[in-house]
Design brief:
Blueprint lengths: L1 H9 L5 H64 L2 E5 L12 H15 L8 E8 L2 E11 L5 H4 L6 H10 L13 E10 L3
Antiparallel strand pairs: 1-4, 2-3, 3-4
This protein binds heme C (HEC).
């Protein structure tokens, strides 16, 4: 790093190089993160739709309850990233956001209240955490029609409601409407180890 600083001191042009490099790095990491999210999301939705078809929402609750953490763990193992879901209205307390994700969620909630569509809410940057450079990526998950079976209001059938109450006594992930932000994918990767 020292020679870069020296070069920058002697040549004004070189000053621009580190910033450009960081932009390129963020663009590459963002593309990688988007790919991980797309794969994770497809797998979750695939399992969910298959379970809904096989036995309706009550049966499909098992997919989210048992399979979602496994699918996330597989995504982490394949990528070496931390891959999680979280929300401002949590169902499972295991998905409680860390401080960074909580701040991103609060920002998304405020932007959504101002009229921004949930589908466009995302943030990507390199931050310092515990002396390490860490890439953080947070992307809103919009609510789709199927999601209402378990995250809607009146759409949630009594038998589904009973099963949810049994598994998640503190469930706050209800009352959503189509296109509203249901929660987020939150990914991180330590860059310097
Ligand atoms: C069959 C019921 C069911 C359906 C349909 C469903 N979910 Fe869930 N969802 C759950 C359950 C159960 C959990 C808790 C999972 C766990 O224990 O980790 C959950 C958790 C989540 C979480 C993690 C944050 C939290 O609150 O714990 C997000 C985000 C989420 N769901 C989004 C969605 C979206 C988006 C859809 C539609 C594409 C959807 N869900 C459809 C049952 C469902």
């Amino acid at each position: 790093m020292k020679h870069l600083t020296l070069a920058a001191a002697f040549c004004g042009l070189a000053l621009a190089t580190p910033a450009l490099a960081a932009d390129d790095e963020i663009a590459a990491l963002t593309a990688e993160a988007a790919g991980i999210v797309a794969k994770f999301s497809d797998e979750l939705k695939g399992e969910l739709m298959a379970a809904m078809k096989a036995g309706g929402p009550v049966n499909a609750i098992g997919v989210c309850n048992e399979k979602a953490p496994g699918i996330a763990a597989a995504a982490e193992e394949a990528s070496g990233w931390s891959v999680r879901r979280s929300s401002h209205k949590l169902r499972n307390p295991d998905n409680t956001p860390d401080a960074y994700t909580a701040a991103a969620i609060a920002d998304f909630v405020a932007r959504e209240a101002e009229g921004a569509p949930a589908s466009g809410l995302a943030t990507a940057e390199i931050v310092e955490e515990n002396g390490q450079r860490v890439f953080r990526f947070v992307k809103a998950i919009p609510t789709g029609q199927t999601c209402l079976n378990c995250h809607g209001g009146a759409e949630v059938k009594p038998e589904t409601e009973a099963k949810l109450a049994e598994l998640y006594p503190a469930d706050a992930a209800r009352g959503f409407a189509v296109d509203q932000m249901r929660g987020v994918f939150t990914l991180s990767k330590v860059l310097d180890e």
